[in-house]
Records
---
Amino acid sequence: MTQKISRRGFVAGASSVAVAGGLTACAEPGSEDFVPVPGLERGPFGADSTAEDVTAGLDLTGMTALVTGANSGLGLETMRVLAVRGAHVIGTGRTLEKAETACSSISGETTPAVLELTELDSIASCAEQVNGMDRPIDMLILNAGIMALPELEQVNGLEKQFAVNHMGHYLLGRLLLDRVVAAPAGRIVVLSSSGHMWAPDGGIEFDNLSGEVGYDPMKAYGQSKLANGLFAFELARRLEDTNATANAVHPGIINTNLGRYYSGWIRAFANMFGWIFMKNVEQGAATQTYVATRPELVGLSGYYFADCNPIVPDPRMNDEKLAAELWDVSEEFCRSYLT
């Protein structure tokens, strides 16, 4: 069984666990937020690195990856690079047409799959298709998401950002968990965001998951991104007796269609001047690709990465009680699909 370097264990003082041979993290030189993980040293990659840079020299032949939201932006670039390196990539889109178009636009072995994260039946059908392939999933990259809906929208009684960003991915991850555990060193990478700091003071408003008590676009987005991090944190704990790992990622500030709900002047500003302070898509896909592929990171679980660097998140993302409560609420919500 693979030894684990667990953020939870390290924070608790169990710092003696190490991966044989040591690890090299891709960290921004001089980063003050770097988490000193046992055996993990700063490496050559950082904010300017691309997904191709961090996978250079890797041969992923024989591995299977699933990337949600693979039809555009970070998901498409992640799928492209993984396929270039030899992996078989299952790329999901909200419709079969979008998934097929994305998969056919790149070189390598790909399989399109329909995944509409607002529809629980669609999530279950996608999982059934993937489970039917009867092959381990080496990399499950939960990438898709929405941001800052200007008005309250609900899906299955939940505020839509929470429903799509967290609950949909929670259900997909749970339904595919056995496939990840079946891999020699399966990895689950959950896209969070530095926006998790915008979450309500209490972290998750369990008494207002519908958004009806009060709705603020950025606070709701922050809550959903905090939920992503808490999901990875709790999942890492539950995977401790397996070879599988789970980590959360902040990809950076990137001008993708994630910001399509912003006002016109904000989008115009980003299009004109975003190159000054934003990453491009190739750079934005680097951290999730790094965490999903690097052999040096086998056994690293329960961490939060930015610029390919394990960093310190908002303390609420380390809240074991909050993570466990979110898991229980999510499990209950999805129970009819998990039995």
---
Amino acid sequence: MKDNVKSGALTEVTFFILLSLYTPRHGYAIMQFIEEKTGGRLVLGAGSLYGALNTLTEKGWIGPYGDSGGRTKEYCITPEGKAIAEKELQRLTELTKIAAAIVEEGK
């Protein structure tokens, strides 16, 4: 995962994982959420997802949720992860406003 925290730029996969965890979910539910929300454009394999989850956990952006005594481990976004996701949303909103203005000027 090559996220650029200084500029706020996240990979699309990282951004969607963070968004998916505004509601606690286990790995398979995260994969389903991302596939559904992107209309099947993004489909994560288990290896890619669990590698990303480990990285995001190490960064402190997500954490375990509830009792992990069972087979399925649930995750949730942390306050730091929410701040990162919201900063990325602001960046993308600004980017699309600028792009829309440029396209409109070029018509």
---
Amino acid sequence: MLKVINVISDSNIGGAGKCILTFLKYYDKSQFDVKVVVPRGSLLIKELEALGAYIIEADGIADKSLSAKGIMSLKKIFAEHKPDVIHAHASMSARFAARLYGKAKIVFTRHSVFEPSKKISQGLGKAINGFVNNSTADKIIAVADAAKENIVKTGVNPDKITVIKNGVEPLKVISDEEKLKLKSNYNVGEGEYLLGIVARLNYVKGHVYILESLKKLLDDGIKVKLLIAGTGDYEEEIRKKISELDIAENVIMAGFVTDVTGIMNILDLNLNASFGTEATSLSLLEGMSIGLPAVVSDFGGNPGVIEHGVNGLIFKKCDSDDMYNKLRSLLTDTAAMDNLKKGCLKVFEQQFRAEVMTDAIQNIYRDVMGV
């Protein structure tokens, strides 16, 4: 049995944490002994406990990729638990500590997509960055093709990288009665389309372009509302934009939503307008699992999830006119919408089920150990 320790530095529950939680539900317990190291007091602890996971709390790693305290804390943990494989999620401290421990193979997952700066993608900076990453990882998982492209630009050996897209459990399909009740709660009337975005309220998530597209649809006389779920530092700017466009009656600010099942069931289209960072959006996958098509920007990992004309449409990032045109084409074409719904279910089953992701990660563990 292979002994594996996953290390995550997140104090909150983000995409990386959700991926670990999903993996823990599906991994082969007869072949792998899996433990999880989290920052002391992390919000992940409650979720991990619910799954019966073996949890180790560490000092000095909370929301820090690299710290001397974190390295020493993790080195002690590795020496005590003697893992065969150490899997680091956004934790350079874990990778350095693993090399100091010296008795485990190191797997590193790149969960994000963003264009690397010139400091680490050119000249000496690229050489140094490449050396550090290549020497502190035996295998690297990129959650999107775009993520692989990003890190290769910074000097990382492409032969070490395997693309494993995120996987999720399919959402529950709720009854028509439940849908009507939920729409009523959100004040969505009969005959109104409902668009939605589930993402943190951050500048690079592109909420402004969605709002501008919504305004154009409303000016066309299309009955449509937008549901925005999430919290973040850009909320005030979003509210200002809503006021500026005079579309407050057509925008629902839902705040943080613990369980998105209900929301995904009542949406007509799932939206993603990211232009600064986006890997494999879990919200897109969750919607896809119940046949919810998406209209997304051409940035980052989005084109790796949404195939234009198959399970959604892709528009040019930061281009509200193009987004508007794509949205309008679907909201005025029932047959096209129905075809995309069927495409969503097919693509999800083939590529994005939790079991597909879990099997791929387990194969990485076997491969790095040569078994």
---
Amino acid sequence: MSSSSPIIVKGLNHWFGRDEARKQVIFDVSLEIARGSLTVMMGPSGSGKTTVLTLMGCLRDVQEGSVRLLAQELFGANESRMVALRRRIGVIFQAHNLHESLSAIQNVRMGLEVHGRGNIVQQDQAAAHMLKLMGLGERINYLPSKLSGGQKQRVAVARALVHNPEIIFADEPTAALDKESGVTVVKMLKKLGQNRGTTTVMITHDNRILELADRIITLEEGAIVKDEMV
């Protein structure tokens, strides 16, 4: 790996709380992630996986250490830099976070609207195409209340991918999916890495998809305890 790697973390420490209640939760985490790779982060609940993911994904301020995302330093970064970087990444949460008053295609279209990509016709075409890839071509006009939990999650995945992000951060993206759907989503992420150089960092407890990973990083009590190429 090199300085051209899309994610470079050095000496990352993080605390929650203030004063006497202040508690360190991340301890001297350093890692470098290659372009186009699929990296899985594992570890027990409370091990710091989501905290590290959100620090790398511009969702928390870096308190100590260095996080370089797409050659931009996040430590001390101002809001305009953070916003610009967020437009170049996609985030998939375990909770689908869909807007209940919007249809599936409208929810996915938001992934383009916030980035100012194309006119509404182009946005609808791209959103419909992504939903079809997710097996939801016949449900593009359904409201979330008419979709199953797994279908909602696939809409959320489509929304995160529709603007062709350079990096995807995913927190338990297959938790609400059946085995076939979960493997399909991860294979799609893997293919994006191979075809477009999209880099994916994923938190999972799903042993079904570990064989698709290029690398598995294990955290315990806020520190990396194992880092292996697959």
